[in-house]
Amino acid sequence: MATNRTFTMLKPDAVEKRHIGAILDKISASGFRIVAMKLTQMTKGDAETFYAIHNERPFFGELVEYMTRGPIVAAVLEKENAVEDFRTLIGATNPADAAEGTIRKLYATSMGENAVHGSDSDENAAIESAFHFSGREIF
Ligand code: DAT
Ligand code: MG
Q1: Is 117 a catalytic residue?
Q2: Residue 94: CB within 6 Å of ligand 1?
Q3: Which residues cross the membrane (predicted)?
Q4: Does the CB atom of residue 111 touch ligand 1 within 6 A?
Q5: Over the stretch 98-108, which tens digit does the pLDDT of each residue have?
């Protein structure tokens, strides 16, 4: 995986509220190219594995429940400096702290239901992309 790619999920709350189109539009308008994408639903096991780093945290059960309650849009995005620039585009984890115009400021409702995921490093972008997509699904 090249270092100019990141992985994102539009989380169940964003899909439920029909924000897929608006969020993808903002991502594209911000210079990211979608190189892989699908609507999918994580199993409990998937979510526990994906968020394993948080498994000792008090919110872990809620996080797994939330991430598995409905479909998500999983995607791989390409752009120069993709990981960092996408974290800037989505804003702070808690939407109350997110900058004006960021995806979380616009579409997230709370820390627990914050609309979108963005990888936090090139290494994790590669791991997370491979978790959801085979090589032939990434263009
Ligand atoms: P981010 O998604 O900004 O990378 P993270 O990796 O620290 O944030 O946490 C992963 C997700 O877990 C986050 O998007 C929402 C949830 N989460 C984190 N901290 C939380 C908290 N204190 N209370 C409830 N949910 C939390
Ligand atoms: Mg994170």
Answers
A1: yes
A2: no
A3: none
A4: yes
A5: 999 999 999 99
